[in-house]
Amino acid sequence: MKIYIGEIVDNEMDLMLEDDICPSKMRDQLSNLKEGEDIELNITSAGGSVIAGNAIISQIREAQSNGHRVISKIHGIAASMGSVIACAADELVMDENAVMMIHQPWTMAVGNQNDLRKEADTLELLSKTLVGIYKTKFPSKSEKDIEKMMDAETWILATEADEYGLVCTIDHTANEPLKFAAKLRK
Fold first, then answer.
1. 183 in helix, strand or coil?
2. Which CATH number is 167's domain given?
3. Cα–Cα distance, 116 to 110 (Å, whole number)
4. Number of domains in the chain
5. Which residues pair with 95 in a beta bridge?
6. What is the pLDDT of residue 174?
């Protein structure tokens, strides 16, 4: 089953483009899985909601626990929460010209000093959940190393994956020129 992941949004009312995803849309797509069928996540995403992304990752893990193999394919970009979802798969494939970006979660907040301290604590908690997911695809990195990469907002070209310790396969066919055939009519 192929699933396309664009922006990660909280609910169906926030879906703007066909490839945007929210937990209920993911649930609906996964409900059509056949026994033993692989799931191919085709990701072109600048990211989105951490909460919705974590719910989608829970759905992916449930499918994995039911015997479904999950392959993430990054086409163009998997940034922010899009990169976290990509790393939740059993296998990660990046187009040769693709890029992945990891960073600390962020938010916009209003309120008094107590509200803002609470929001900072929430962001720290969410960051810990992301580190654990990234660790599965950066096995040679410690959690501290991954946190430093997130602090720095790290951009990783597919061709640099080995340098960062990212376990992935690079798809070199993505940049192959298209072959056309033409027929002239009189």
1. coil
2. 3.90.226.10
3. 7
4. 1
5. 171
6. 62
Say if 167 falls within a structural domain. Answer: yes
Residue 177: per-residue pLDDT = 56
Look up the domain containing 62 and give its range.
2-172
H-state helical runs in the chain: 23-30, 50-65, 81-87, 113-135, 143-151, 161-164
Angle separating helix axes 113-135 and 50-65, nearest 10 degrees = 30
In the structure, what pLDDT confidence band is assigned to residue 17 with cuts at 50, 70 and 90? confident
- Dist CA 33 CA 137 (whole Å): 25
Q: Output the pTM of the full model.
A: 0.90
pLDDT for position 173: 85
DSSP 121-163: HHHHHHHHHHHHHHHTT-TTS-HHHHHHHHHTTEEEEGGGHHH
The residues assigned a catalytic role are: 80, 103
